[in-house]
Design the sequence.
């Protein structure tokens, strides 16, 4: 597999290497995204990361970085596998989680841990990597500072689909070598929107990403200076990726990291998986074209991890809902994009 090479010039057209089929777009047309993930817990984080990589190929986004909020070497190795599969690993810096909380999912037994150990018939690793070194990675909240400091003002969308520790820590960061601004000031200056998988508003039950670190969730919704749009639990329940697609639509790859990890995640195949996290990515890229946004308001987190939304014209928080037709449109969107071959795929 050839690694994707980009030639970037300010205001000029971005052209793919001759072996690739990447779309030709101007730098200004791409959406700048930082992805914050607890990949290894639920398979939909992998679907979200694959979607982001495909959108790099389409010329829709720049994936500025991946910030891990789940600890463990296998988590970083798995992200490296996915990014390498698409030919983008050298372009995408990764930040690690440290003393970050979490659910205690066994790093050796979860799907990421299993997938990184897969071997081919000759005993070699099934998937190529760049050999990422977990201990050499910067802490995620520090990587955020570097990436935001380098970005144009009001140009970055943060997509968070896991624990909220990294973002709460970013809010508290002081000035450093990357910027004289505090974390909160950097966010206010550089971040256009936070698209986040969090909350459960229909029945006001605790939602996992919030519940896993309630103090960080409280801090985030109380102090984040910009717009927050939530893809809540109800969306993932309504939008499910068909297991039959996993069985039938990825055979061209021989071994695809999404298919192999999907098989190892939960239960007997085929099963239709809840798409909690990819919907937050979809909103970051496509806006409300397949969903319905609430009016502005405020979201608060209580001591049990329950999220409550209060409409208010002065608020900067919203969440979205889907009807049956919109949910189907999202499923069709995911099937079309996730099953696409990487731009640098060697036939």
Sequence:
């Amino acid at each position: 597999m050839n690694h994707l090479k980009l030639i970037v010039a300010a205001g000029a057209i971005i052209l793919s290497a001759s072996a690739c089929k990447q779309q030709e777009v101007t730098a200004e047309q791409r959406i700048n995204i930082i992805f914050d993930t607890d990949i290894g817990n639920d398979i939909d984080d992998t679907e979200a990361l694959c979607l982001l990589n495909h959108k790099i190929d389409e010329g829709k986004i720049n994936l500025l970085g991946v910030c891990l909020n789940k600890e463990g070497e296998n988590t970083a190795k798995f992200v490296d596998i996915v990014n390498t599969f698409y030919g983008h690993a050298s372009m995408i810096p990764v930040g690690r989680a440290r003393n970050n909380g979490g659910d205690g999912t066994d790093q050796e037994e979860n799907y990421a841990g299993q997938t990184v150990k897969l071997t081919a018939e000759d005993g070699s690793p099934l998937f190529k990597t760049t050999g990422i070194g977990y201990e050499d990675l910067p802490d995620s909240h520090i990587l955020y500072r570097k990436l935001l400091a380098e970005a144009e003002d009001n140009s970055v969308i943060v997509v968070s689909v896991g624990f909220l520790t990294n973002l709460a820590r970013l809010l508290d960061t002081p000035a450093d070598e990357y910027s004289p601004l505090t974390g909160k000031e950097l966010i206010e200056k550089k971040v256009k929107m936070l698209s986040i998988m969090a909350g459960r508003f229909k029945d006001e039950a605790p939602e996992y990403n919030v519940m896993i670190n309630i103090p960080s969730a409280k801090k985030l919704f109380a102090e984040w200076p910009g717009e927050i749009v939530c893809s809540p639990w109800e969306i993932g329940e309504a939008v499910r990726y068909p297991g039959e697609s996993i069985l039938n639509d990825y055979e061209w790859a021989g071994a695809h990291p999404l298919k192999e990890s999907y098989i190892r995640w939960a239960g007997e195949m085929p099963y239709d998986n809840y798409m909690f996290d990819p919907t937050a990515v979809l909103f970051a890229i496509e806006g409300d074209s397949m969903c319905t946004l609430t009016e502005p308001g405020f979201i608060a987190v209580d001591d049990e991890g329950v999220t409550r939304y209060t409409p208010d014209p002065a608020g900067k928080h919203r969440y979205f809902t889907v009807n049956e037709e919109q949910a189907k449109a999202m499923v069709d969107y995911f099937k079309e994009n996730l099953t696409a071959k990487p731009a640098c795929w060697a036939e």
User: Anything to note?
Assistant: The mean pLDDT is 90.
